[in-house]
């Protein structure tokens, strides 16, 4: 057995080393001779110390004295950086780690060592890419009330569930559990997902499954953020959703009321995703959710799904068209047109103002675009709107003359 002092020191040093592996100033990588960032040049003393500590401890390791816990941490180390690969090549860390996880998958109750291993696995981003069988077994046991793990550890498992998805769209994604107050079950902000503590407690204490509907709802919001920031547009729906978000962000006082909230495209799509994703995930764990319950918990029961392209909203008792509201809003906001290139389909800059493209301009562009069917549909929608606008304008011009 490895001297327990060595073991504690090794695990601690690996944690510190992995935390410091990228430059905190610029995200760059370090040179392991100088311990300065290869991009911005800043020196990292902590990284140097942990590197030296690990280097001095590795010679004490051999196949007979590395236990399961050390194996997991060494696996974390070689997956964070390849600098120690040579020094550790006598160990088959990937295979051994897989076996440790396989063994944990066969258990329902965990002893103290198992708990330590689970903490090692679920506290670590490295393990976001392993297969999710172990995670799903643990969550299933919580629902069934067969669980002896602490709430803190179950929170880490839930975090794994969220981040294994959201990290695919952004390395900046984060997950938090907070007291969000009455009636708020979750929040999404950019690539951050936040879950209400009460929803978490209900899951942990009573096996309440609503958590599996709340999370995908918020995750859909982060995915929409991703599409909008990349300027990805595949239908008129994407354009309307962006307009509605910008209007909400900048005109909250006039725009926010409950009637519009349930019509908000972001909420509708989040509810729809929650309904499918929650139900399917629970099904994969072996639970059948009644249709009525899934509709209610996901919130989709409140949504009119037949008209996702409906631009009408009610503000102060009057029906307004978000297309018109937006055209007025964006007039003097040139920076928006550059920040969101997807608005270029419909708008252009002319004499310092942001204005609609004409029907003829849209028709020309549609002909020259890349025979993409979904874009063609988008253009047809925009052309129809342009035609309507120009018809109304012609009419009022005629009346004036
Ligand atoms: Zn740097
Ligand atoms: Zn929402």
Question: Which residue ranges are poorly predicted, with pLDDT under 50 across at least 5 consecutive positions?
Answer: none
What fraction of the residues are assigned to beta strands by DSSP?
5-15%
- How many E-type strands? 7
Q: Helix coverage percent of residues? A: 55-70%
User: Quick one: overall form?
Assistant: globular
Major sheet size, sense and barrel closure:
3 strands, mixed
* Number of H- or I-type helical stretches: 18
Structure description:
- The protein is mainly alpha-helical and 401 residues long.
- It has a domain at 322-400.
- 57% of the residues lie in helices and 7% in strands.
- It has a three-stranded mixed β-sheet.
- The termini are far apart.
- Bound molecules: zinc ion (ZN) (2 copies).
- One zinc ion is lined by residues 23, 25-26, 28, 37, 39-40, 42.
- One zinc ion (ZN) is lined by residues 217, 221, 267, 270.
Write the layout of secondary structure elements.
Blueprint: H1 4-19, H2 45-57, H3 68-80, H4 93-105, H5 112-122, H6 133-143, H7 151-166, E1 174-178, E2 186-189, E3 192-196, H8 197-206, H9 211-230, H10 236-250, H11 252-255, H12 258-261, H13 265-284, H14 291-298, E4 312-315, E5 318-321, H15 322-330, H16 334-339, E6 347-350, E7 353-356, H17 359-368, H18 373-400
Helix pairs in contact: 1-2, 1-3, 3-4, 3-5, 4-6, 9-13, 10-15, 13-14, 17-18
């Amino acid at each position: 057995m490895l001297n327990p002092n060595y073991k504690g020191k090794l695990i601690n040093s690996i944690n510190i080393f992995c935390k410091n592996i990228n430059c905190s100033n610029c995200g760059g990588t370090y040179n392991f001779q100088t311990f300065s960032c290869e991009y911005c040049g800043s020196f990292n003393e902590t990284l140097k110390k942990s590197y030296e500590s690990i280097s001095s401890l590795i010679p004490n390791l051999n196949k007979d004295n590395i236990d399961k816990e050390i194996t997991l941490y060494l696996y974390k180390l070689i997956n964070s950086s390849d600098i120690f690969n040579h020094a550790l090549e006598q160990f088959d860390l990937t295979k051994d780690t897989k076996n440790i996880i396989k063994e944990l998958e066969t258990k329902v109750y965990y002893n103290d060592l198992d708990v330590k291993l689970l903490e090692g696995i679920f506290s670590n981003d490295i393990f976001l890419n392993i297969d999710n069988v172990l995670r799903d077994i643990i969550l299933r046991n919580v629902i069934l009330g067969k669980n002896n793990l602490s709430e803190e550890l179950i929170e880490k498992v839930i975090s794994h569930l969220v981040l294994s998805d959201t990290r695919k769209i952004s390395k900046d994604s984060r997950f938090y559990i907070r007291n969000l107050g009455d009636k708020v079950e979750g929040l999404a902000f950019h690539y951050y997902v936040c879950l209400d503590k009460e929803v978490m407690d209900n899951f942990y204490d009573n096996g309440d499954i609503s958590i599996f509907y709340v999370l995908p709802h918020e995750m859909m919001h982060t995915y929409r953020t991703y599409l909008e920031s990349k300027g990805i547009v595949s239908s008129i729906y994407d354009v309307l959703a962006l307009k509605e978000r910008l209007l909400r962000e900048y005109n909250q006082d006039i725009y926010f009321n409950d009637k519009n909230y349930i019509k908000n495209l972001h909420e509708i799509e989040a509810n729809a995703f929650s309904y499918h994703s929650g139900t399917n995930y629970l099904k994969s764990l072996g639970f059948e959710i009644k249709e009525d319950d899934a509709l209610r918990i996901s919130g989709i029961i409140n949504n009119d799904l037949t008209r996702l392209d409906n631009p009408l909203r009610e503000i102060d008792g009057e029906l307004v068209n978000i297309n018109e509201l937006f055209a007025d809003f964006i007039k003097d906001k040139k920076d928006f047109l550059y920040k969101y290139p997807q608005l270029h389909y419909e708008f252009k800059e002319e004499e310092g103002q942001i204005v609609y493209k004409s029907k003829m301009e849209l028709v020309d562009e549609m002909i020259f675009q890349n025979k993409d069917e979904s874009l063609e549909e988008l253009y047809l929608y925009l052309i129809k709107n342009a035609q309507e606008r120009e018809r109304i304008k012609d009419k009022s011009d005629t009346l004036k003359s």
